[in-house]
Please model this.
Amino acid sequence: MRRSILIYCAFVCFSLPFLFADEDAERIISKLQNKYDSIRDASVTFTQDVVFGVTKAEQTFTGSLLMKKGNKYRIEFEEQTIVTDGKSVWSYTKANNQVLIDRYKENPNTFSPDKVLVNVPKNYTATVLGKESIQKRETTILKLLPRHDKVNLKWMKVWVDKDWLMRKIQVLDLGDNLTTYHIEAIQLNVGLAETHFQFLPPPDVEIIDLR
Model:
């Protein structure tokens, strides 16, 4: 599950054509649109909780995300790192002491940390569910439902604060696996260097180049 979430990471989308379910949702998404249109790069730390649909087993990971416009991102967990410069993707797994290198391929129907932590998916209807306090911040909860069956999830919820930043995201996929992202910190437009989006394999690692 962890690898399936990460291995198909794709670029951060910056156009959000929504069909709105109510005026409050329309206003919030419009503010989010304006906020994320201004993003040049972002640094995010988060916790990812996964509850598997069949077994009900639970797993928790802590991670970080660096992203920059131009389909560039770097996602780091304790045991796995995924990096792309918009042309190639490096996927390094410590346990296997292996790096997979492939061409970057956009897949708009998959969801991964780089997409959901600094973005909202396309072509979803949005409704307001209510309010909730997260880390002493008041947030508004939006539920997003897909407008077509070409995506691999049933619904998504986002918790949006008064600064128009998402502080929590939940995704229920078609296998009833529930993934929750708790955003610990987010910084926008920090001037990330291009070197963050290149990967230098550790010594003695096995390299499998699929390009």
Notes: The chain has three helices and 13 strands. The CA atoms of residues 65 and 75 lie 5 Å apart.
